[in-house]
Specification:
By secondary structure, the protein is an alpha+beta fold. The protein has a single domain, classed as phage-related protein like fold (Alpha-Beta Complex), CATH 3.90.1690. The chain contains 6 helices and 17 strands. Strands 7, 10, 11, 12, 13, 14 and 17 form a 7-stranded mixed β-sheet that branches. Strands 1, 5, 6, 15 and 16 form a 5-stranded mixed β-sheet that branches. A hairpin with a 2-residue loop joins β2 and β3. α1 packs across α3. The radius of gyration is 23 Å and the shape is globular. The N and C termini lie far apart (56 Å).
Amino acid sequence: MALETEVWSGDIEENLFANNSFVQKGVDHSGWINHKTVHIPQAGANPVVKKDRATLPATIGQRTDTDLTYNMGQYTTNPLLITDLEDLQISYSKRQSVWRQHIDTLGDAIGNHTAFNWSPSGDARIVRTSGSASALSLAPGATGTRLALVLANITAARAVLDYDNVPAEGRIMLIPSDIYNNDLLNIADTVRFDAMGQSNLPTGVVARLFGFDIMIRPSVSVYDNQATPVIKPVADDGVATEATDNNMAILCFHPNFVAQAVGSTKIFFNEDAPEYYGSILSGEQMFGAAKLRTDQKGIVAIIQAA
């Protein structure tokens, strides 16, 4: 059944990130995979500069480099029982309908894990929303009200990236759809870019604001409500742990400071299993994502404040 396996595997590779195009915005490390681990060299400290050096010989130093690594994750779908394989082979639309749900679910989980792995921590990497209280944009399981996003929050995030000497071109703001629709588009000055159709949907970019290409997805990252917010862990399916005081976050980053690695795609196929009176199929995708710098430069989170 090599032909059928090849077709199903191709479906995963082609459609996995169709609704999660932001995942492919980072530096591609797919060619750097050593077994299940990606190795990223981290350059040591810059050399010391002296003006009008009076003492010779100059002090000789040595740069100490470090190795940042991240592991590939094994993402698998639960086995799918197919009771009429021949019909699925003949009817491409039916085969797509059966398998697309698995691909979309797999892609969403990988997208959520990618957002989690790219999200920063620490006060220097966080901006809090400061608008009026709004109950329209809440993380799953959250209650109460949150302060709405205002333009000053976006310019504050931009200032952090400016201070990091991050290139101005190519910056991305990945925003939860609820915050985009309920907060950002309710700011009078931002309604115009949406009404005028300033979008680039094939790349996932819906608008551009303050130098950020805006991308939307239902969920980005979720943080707790501590004074210095901590990102909430995500389950295997990429869903964040729910709590009433959770806060949604917007992820602002430059692609040069994050990375992803797409590993092997494999289809497991058990044809005509007698105990199930049909054929069983499941898929596996190896994938990893990480921040590229230990100091987290090039990444900022705008987090809701209560």
